[in-house]
# Entry
Amino acid sequence: MRALRLTEIVVAARCISCTCALDDLRFHATVWYDDVDLTTLDRELAERLAFHIALFQLNAVCSLRPDVIDVGPYARFLTPELRTLWRTVFRHVWAQWRYETNDPDYLPDFASAPSTAHPTPATLPANDALLAFCGGGKDSLVALKLLERAALPFATLGYSHSIYGTAAAQHALLEQVASASARTRAERLYVIDDFMDAPLPHMHAAETPASVFAALPLAALRGYRALVVAHEASANTPNLVWRGEPINHQWGKGWEAEQLLDRYIQTLLPVRYFSVLSPIHDEVIFELLSRDAPLAAHTHSCNIAKPWCGHCPKCAYVWLQFAAHLPPDVVAATFPRGVDYDFRALLGLTDHTPFECVGSAEEARLALALANARHALPAPLAVLAATTPPPPPDTLRAFVEVLDRHGMPPAIADRILPLLREAAAAAARRLGVIA
# Structure
């Protein structure tokens, strides 16, 4: 059996590094932090958190199809709950990879039995602030402004990864959004992963869960009471159903993943994990974004060439929503060269919607209709709009609802939900529907 071996984890003052081996190959991943000293953490806690970071970073190497994962000298940290979580996340996040490689049953297990020793949740320093992830996109901007208007204290967390280019360029873009908020502190982490840069085919990774675990040392050091993300309701929509299984590129951002991670994190630290946007769809998100329209031009979401390549599904979807909801000058400032993309996949007119973090086909169809009504589409896209039916009334109503399902603690929900409901009502009036 081919074993992916976790050979070393090192906790240094400013970084956590891990090394793994498969056959004669060696790969390294390092998570760096600003203005910290990880050696001041309780040693057992620091090593346990570092093991989680290593485990979720190395799962990308499973693109090479090892049979088992050997955690070697770190086996004492592998509890039954962690094994279940890791395999559940892997099964769902890697559904796209299994579809693309036609390998429906691949799911690696661990070489050793889980440990029966369970961690005792740590005690953290007193801190009322939340740690809000800022990926630099429109969802991040909306989430930060919601926290600001709800008078909830928060720090921002900017995250860079070596696969997206230089860290300095990434954080400069992130700062354009994060610095426009009423944050109390700016946190940054940097992931350098040489596997993702290797010339190997069919790579995949569980980037969202990995980034969540990478943030836990900051929570442990500073005492942040929650990790806050900006994952919207449409993240629960699958791209297709294959052999009876929903294949969802965004599963790691969806409701099931949020619940699993929230429950599990609390076995390590007294820290919650939730999204402030999970009750709403893009129609309400863009209602909120329109209130900070000048800042929208500072956002970026492209995973090909930041800030925007203009040719990928992500660029096309965001441009379409901007054209549907924001002033023309903001659209032009954000996308000065427009976009060059075949929109049919976004609109659900092909075998499956794009494997990207974009809204559902119905949300794209609504944006297409709205942008067309504003005469904001180039001629070829206007022709497509004329032959593409918009969503039916029931779907429109669903897009301007605020779902009861969310993971926010009551004290936070009491401040956030009224803002979401007011925006949803405004969006419903604008669309002429009764929510």
